[in-house]
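Render Acyl carrier protein in 3D.
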Amino acid sequence: MFRSIKRVSALNSKLALSKVSAPSFIKPAMFAIPSMRSYSAAGGLTHDEIKERIFSVLNDFDKVKHENISETADFSKDLGLDSLDTVEVVMAIEEEFNVEIPDEEADSISTVAHAIKFISNSEGAN
């Protein structure tokens, strides 16, 4: 009586340890993620792209005479903007290029050329 229990127990343990085979039409899954190259940063903006976008920002201001906009234009002398308008222009440039200009830098930006130079040197500008 105990021999048969021992035999059945041994048979069950062998079945539990035996490898279960999968049907032949099932293949092991391959990785579905294609290989791709990734870069840490996008290509930088060109000088002309920055200039064009800053000109566009300035054209949106009613106080600015469009014919006076140039790369060498001074915000107050050439474009007729007061200090509050200049702050608004700098804030609009921040929004346009998705950058934050520190207050010290913002105070020094008084010409279109300064704004272009700052955006050119900003790594996060896009």
